[in-house]
Amino acid sequence: MNRRVIAVTVAVAAAAATASVPAIGAAAGVSNRTTATCALPAYGPGTTYNPQFHPAKFPARVDNPMFPLTPGRTLIYSGTKDNKKALDLFAPSTRTRVIDGVRTRVVQDRLFLNSVLEERTSDYYAQDSCGNVWYFGEDTATLDRHGHVLSREGSFHAGIDGAQPGVFMQATPTLGRKFRQEWYRGQAEDTYKAIDLSMQKSVPYGSFHNTLRTAETTALEPNVLDNKWYVRGIGEIEEVTVKGATEKLVLVGILS
User: Fold this and answer.
1) Where is 69: in which H helix or E strand?
2) I need a labelling partner for 228 at 20 to 30 A (CA). Which of 36, 86, 173, 209 fits?
């Protein structure tokens, strides 16, 4: 087993044992902004999708209550994917990168299947001045068991070759409103909508009330439907495929 995986797996038990939900409000850096002055893009067909945004309205931080990206904190997920045991490490970094004129926060995502690193991704998120989180692209690599790159399919940067950013999380989620999370024809076409704001949900990390549940689809896999659950002050706590191949990841610990 990869030494990094061993270290993380050992740390998970300690993290889960002492787990507590981060404080909500000013002490946790959570924004109370509204969407009153920020126009969000209409869903629309991908070929006509052209979101309008102003780079000056995107500060460096991402502190949306349902999707806070705190540098130095790693969210640890465990479950199954492709009929293999999965471990996913989601780690907001101190790094930023300018994509399509916007300074984005770089998040490192590492997916291990059967203890082998199979996918590494750098994701680029930014939050507008009203608290909405946008997704501006990713650099992803699928690896063989020796760490060699097999594919970079799905990588895109907004503003290049027709790629466009999308809305990843509203400041105040609106039930039933559909958003494109990304747009790069044939490569990145994820969409989502909020479908419940009061779910009760338990995962190994803890039990929570008033979680946000979303439904995610993509035209690239029309027979697949994913649900995700989010908690204030933490972010995503579970992802499960409810239509299509069985895949599931649940939050088991947080390292900081």
Assistant:
1) none
2) 36
Q: Which amino acid is at 220?
A: L
Rounded distance between C-alpha atoms, residue 52 and residue 72, angstroms: 31
Coil, helix or strand for 50? Answer: coil
Q: What is the pTM of this model?
A: 0.87
Query: Beta partners for 238?
Result: 229, 250
Q: Which of 57, 71, 58 is nearest to 29 (CA)?
A: 71
Return the number of other C-beta atoms located less than 10 Å from residue 244's C-beta: 12
**Torsion angle of the four alpha carbons 54, 55, 61, 66, in this order, in degrees rounded to the nearest 10:** 40
Q: Could you give the 3-state DSSP secondary structure of residue 255?
A: strand
**pLDDT range class, residue 35, cuts 50, 70, 90:** very low
At residue 56, the 3 state secondary structure works out as: helix
- Distance between CA atoms of residues 106 and 93, nearest Å: 6
Query: How confident is the model over 131-152, as a mean pLDDT?
Result: 95
Alpha helices in the chain (DSSP H): 3-17
How many other β-carbons are positioned within 10 Å of the β-carbon of residue 17?
A: 8
Maximal C-alpha separation, the chain: 50
Mean pLDDT, rounded, of the chain? 88
Give the pLDDT band of residue 126 (cuts 50, 70, 90).
very high
